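STRUCTURE:
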């Protein structure tokens, strides 16, 4: 009797093992099918083009083919690749509320860290730069994923569109940014500067010293500043964002010295600086703090003026401003999140809360 029971159990165990082996084979087959489906989906996503993109690519291909035929097979390069020389560290982990011009973030510090792979001794490339007060930074809008448009809507025009090349918009066919910043200090292969209008982690393509003899027009006509005006403090005059510079800034720091008269030749009359009226006109918002926000400023040791600089220039997009009007608006500044309420009727914005941002990585750990 016992032997029969043992034999029965052995048979059941054999059947169970066979079933398990079948299940394992089925799982293996399903895994193979799943991997194949994932590969197919990945390929579809990589190759996906909207109808407009496909049409543009076809038009570009036809145009390039025609050009190549016309040039009898001459080698034409349609794409140029640049290798970043470094990266910019700022207080803005996201694009939201990033100042549209470096003057708006004049009190915000940034750091350029040069890549060690570019030069054997990257600090040697900065030798002599500390003799200059200001610096041009050329960089890549690496988080600008939208399609470039021939016409864009600058904030100051309230929805009206103009050609992209008549604005400072980041939505360009070649997403390259240019900012003028003030050099604070150079340490080894890093540059500490004032004037932040970049997202943290922005790749740097090049840096060049600011030279007023070549970079700043100095004769203004037709109701603008003229020769002999009082000296202008550079950063006190730089206040408006994204094609919204103040009149003094647009006139190119006019009080800077005249260019030298090289080889004793008489310099030709400089050309007057001219800008459209929609850039010169405009207003700034009044920034208020409620009692709680005032207390949180002190508690979190946040510089009040940094928040004021960002908000008085109205960091909202034209879409947000026209679609929703007065609204709650939040943005992250370094390790804090600022919440404010816009009042478009009275041209004010009130900061209602400043709190420490959750899940911020501590670089010291």
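SEQUENCE:
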């Amino acid at each position: 009797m016992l032997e029969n029971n043992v034999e029965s159990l052995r048979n059941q165990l054999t059947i169970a093992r066979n079933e398990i082996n079948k299940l394992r084979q089925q799982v293996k087959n399903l895994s193979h099918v799943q991997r194949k489906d994932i590969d197919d989906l990945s390929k579809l996503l990589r190759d996906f083009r909207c109808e407009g993109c496909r049409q543009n690519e076809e038009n570009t291909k036809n145009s390039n083919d025609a050009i190549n035929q016309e040039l009898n097979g001459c080698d034409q390069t349609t794409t140029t690749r640049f290798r970043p020389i470094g990266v910019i560290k700022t207080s803005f982990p996201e694009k939201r509320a990033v100042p549209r011009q470096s003057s708006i973030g004049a009190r915000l510090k940034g750091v350029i860290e040069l890549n060690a792979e570019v030069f054997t001794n990257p600090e040697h490339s900065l030798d002599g730069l500390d003799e200059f007060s200001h610096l041009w930074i050329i960089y890549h809008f690496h988080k600008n994923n939208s399609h470039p448009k021939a016409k864009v809507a600058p904030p100051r025009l309230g929805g009206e569109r103009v050609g992209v090349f008549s604005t400072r918009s980041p939505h360009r066919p070649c997403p390259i940014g240019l900012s003028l910043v003030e050099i604070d200090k150079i340490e080894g292969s890093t540059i500490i500067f004032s004037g932040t209008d970049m997202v943290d982690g922005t790749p740097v393509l090049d840096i060049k010293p600011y030279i007023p003899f070549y970079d700043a027009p100095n004769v203004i006509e037709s109701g603008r500043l003229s020769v002999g005006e009082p000296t202008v403090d550079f950063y006190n005059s730089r206040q408006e964002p994204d094609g919204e510079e103040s009149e003094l800034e647009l006139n190119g720091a006019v009080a800077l010295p005249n260019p030298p008269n090289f080889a004793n030749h008489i310099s030709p009359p400089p050309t007057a600086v001219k800008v459209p009226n929609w850039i010169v006109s405009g207003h700034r918002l009044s920034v208020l703090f409620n009692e709680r926000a005032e207390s949180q400023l002190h508690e979190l040791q946040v510089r009040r003026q940094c928040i004021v600089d960002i908000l008085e220039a109205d960091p909202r997009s034209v879409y947000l401003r026209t679609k929703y009007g007065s609204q709650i608006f939040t943005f992250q500044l370094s390790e804090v999140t600022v919440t404010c309420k816009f009042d478009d009727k009275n041209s004010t914005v009130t900061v209602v809360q400043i709190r420490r941002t959750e899940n911020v990585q501590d670089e010291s750990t």
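REMARK: The domain at 286-356 is CATH 3.30.2310.20 (YaeB-like fold).
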